[in-house]
Structure prediction request, 398 residues.
Amino acid sequence: MRRFLSSACLLLLITGAALLNLHCASSSSTTEAEDVPEEPTGPAYTLLSHANDTLRVHHLHTDTQRPVRAGVARIKQHVDAPTRNAVAFTYATPDSVHLARYTLGHNRIERVDARAQPATYSIAWHPERNAFAYGVYTPTAEGNRGTGTIRIAEDGTTRSVGCSASTEVLAWLSDTQLAVRNDDNLYLVAADDCATQATLDIRRHYHMTYDASRTRMAYVYRTLEYNREADAYQPDSTLYVGNAAGAQETRLFGDDRAPRHATWAPNTPELAASVLEDGQRRLVVYSVESDETTFLVPPATAPAGAQQHPHWSPTGDAVAFTLASDNRLQAAVRQAGSTDLLQPATGPVWGWVDAQTLVVPTNDGLTLLDLNGSPLHTLPNKATLVGAWPANAATNSD
Prediction:
């Protein structure tokens, strides 16, 4: 037996091994390259929407969708959390109404409550926590608030607040206080046992809404006033701002100005509303601090049309609104002293996704627009948008 290989054989083995290593390295590199995911190319937003009886989460930046709840007939209401990374909403099935919560980044729907049709829910988020209070009642045959309850949902559980007279929640004012109501009265109550701390007769109060600090309330007071010249009672609707209990009122506009669509800024005590001015509907902004009201768009430079449905941006430095002119609607934005007209719309502006993106109903469906009016994504006409967030908002979720 020969102890040593010939030089030719040794060279052949070395060459073969080198070629084998080269082939393996090449195959490994190819496999690793194939496993690397493609860079996201879509707009960096996440949507929760409803279509074809199914709720879906759609990550636009990767163009991936995930069904999260089937058998949903329609969406009834949705309320965004102040933390801007969650939404509480109600949806109907053929025989019941459900209350649920979606938190961005969880890819699931949290069931909170369910009642037989025609239950009516109300929702009020905690100012800072991923928790909300909710009221639920069964309407009476006369359309009043019937029997029900007020509860708090947090950390996957719910608990009763202990209210017996009230079945609707208006606001979670602080860690320790809720604003609740029945058909006749507003009550400020303790959040742990519903002990009454203040009461207000609200039988003529409508469209009550609290500011971001939960220390002020705007509302429309409706009554019938006797007009001696017309010898008849005529409706009078007046917009007021008061404290959290509805006291210490400031009268802003009466029925001659037909105030509508009052909405608070997200971070300052400012209230935007649509009122009549010289026969034309204009948007005005009332500052609580200065006790002054100014036009959002100066009349001399305002585009033709009625200004309606104001929506503050998340940063509070811009207001989107709907401009109605000659049976035509258009989305518009007022920011930095100028008014920008975006795209024609088929209804009021839906709202903001972030400080640079709006959702507007168009002929194509619900469309995400940047502030130049360029479309970023469109949901089909039959889809209902429940929530829309920047994708990176998931980093703030619980």
